[in-house]
What we know:
Elements: H1 2-13, H2 15-54, H3 64-104, H4 106-114, H5 119-147, H6 149-176, H7 189-195, H8 200-240
Helix pairs in contact: 1-5, 2-3, 2-5, 2-8, 3-6, 3-8, 5-8, 6-7
Amino acid sequence: MRTVHYAVASLHYHKKIYLPYFIALVVMTVGIFFTLCLINSAQVVYHSLQDMLTNNPLNEDKNWDNALQFFFSQMKNIYLSFTLVFLVALTVLTFFFASYSFNRRQKELQTFFASGRSYFNVALQIIYEFVLPALLVVGVITCLTLVFQPFIQRICETIHTQTAQMIRTNDLTNLNNGTQFGIRLPKNYPLLIQSVFISSRDWLNVLTTTIGQTVGLLLVNFAVGLPLAILGSKIRFFRKH
């Protein structure tokens, strides 16, 4: 608990140093959260459409299942690519900012060691200085998402519709060019997505899953960025001395 107190005090003392990174953290975390929300909600839409087409007595075409699965795989891959872009960008920023912070705070860290604090406690404080703001950002995003859930739902539905239209246009182009990966789907396929109703319970499950995945990816970011920054700082320190 004392280490958490030290971390909070350090964040307040070094707020001018941490402010640019905190802004970048907010932007990247929002990007990761929203793209994961798109992936998870697309999965719900896929299962809803699958059930709707299966139970439709007027649907005589039974070859739509593979096309539907492939279609939503394309959609989720598009969203996943944006998630990876945000994650990689955040990890790079974490690495460079942590390296910069360690270099600026070398005398302070040496003072910590000279005062008898162990390497473990100092390392734990540094981890808290990065993790605590990230958890704060996730908490704020969660609260805002719950409050503005209908608005976020409409945004997700609009993006799904536009993405479906883009994928279908690309597939029709592939069919016209004789490409084997083209798939035949109804002309009103984007309208089918709009017709899907996602209940509040399903959206709550989507948001809960998204929150957990976002926290997990942030921890992956810190698990990669911070050790590399520490290693780089040590290498520079030994070169200077």
